């Protein structure tokens, strides 16, 4: 953040020097976020003791309020930068963000003596590799002839035991004790693995298909930062006679919708659903994510209908050839798609946080947090790929590209419908995968 302040405040002689300095600052910020986000959430969730029923119950609400804090922080940041750059400049806006980060670091360090610290468990990647190597080395060993190695003798492992599952049974061979293992005085970890170790690998494998379907959810989310904002820039954004909303300011409204939805979900929806289903969290995590997927499809269909209406209004008023013209249609027409997308985010994103924390092995929980976070970035790249494919196909089989600079002459509504169809197929895949998903069981 300090480098961003410098890039915006210090006079740099040429644009050729200013631009690289600015982008290097962004890359450093991205690397810092990549290391910070997965670890800080996992560290915060580890403050709850799963062996205590009350703390285990509260942990589900923790993920809701954790996301509430993230949304409030990011929304405040957008508001400060948007209105700060208009009245006091970019440098002051970035400086305020840097000061907020400094305060956050001080507060974090102030609580050091109160935190619950987990001991190191060794390299989780080594444990995963050992299961695959042992499974290959014992691929011809039959279960009925040998016993199973259940004890986990590795130092630092947790006391909880995972129940044996019936999925990915080819990995079970890694824990079978054959004649060579029985005659050996010491256990070779690359030839004989424990039941816990094998089940940890199965947990990771079960989450991979879920993660792939979650990537597609962020294709819809990417539109809120791009084409939703582009739509708003062509519409009437007046509030009263003097104030005009900047196009990106609708992201602030989206943040407020998400924050409000989180509070309603945690304080109203969960207690009601808990009474109906008897589930501690009201509904299962996969059900929550599935509802989010469904609502994202609804949001993009609404966006397509609103865009078709906007183009019709532009044509009816003779401004379809003027890309800078303000279409006589209030920007609040976009509010329904923002509302539905915000609610979808509360269901899907928070559900992903909880799933990838709870269902990952203890030693890989930071990787689980990184997995759902990486889905956001990959979803944005996938959105760019879909745009390129749509542009190529529409130019090849139609008279012009669907997506052009002048939205009044574009077919953004068609593009939204393509995304809706793509996400509908993804929803079907998610439902099919979820039916066969086996939750982690401890004994």
UniProtKB/TrEMBL annotation:
- InterPro entries, alphabetized: MFS_trans_sf (IPR036259), POT_fam (IPR000109)
Give an example GO molecular function: transmembrane transporter activity
Gene Ontology cellular component annotations, sorted alphabetically: membrane
Is Transmembrane helix given among the entry's keywords? yes
User: One Pfam family from the UniProt entry?
Assistant: PTR2
User: What domain of life does the UniProt record list for this protein's source?
Assistant: Eukaryota
Where is the chain membrane-spanning? 65-84, 90-110, 243-265, 285-304, 338-357, 369-394, 414-433
Keyword terms, alphabetized = Membrane, Transmembrane, Transmembrane helix
Tell me what topology the record assigns in the membrane.
Answer: Multi-pass membrane protein
Cellular location(s): Membrane
Question: What family does this belong to?
Answer: Belongs to the major facilitator superfamily. Proton-dependent oligopeptide transporter (POT/PTR) (TC 2.A.17) family.
**Name of the protein in its database record:** Uncharacterized protein
Please tell me the species this chain comes from: Nepenthes gracilis (Slender pitcher plant)
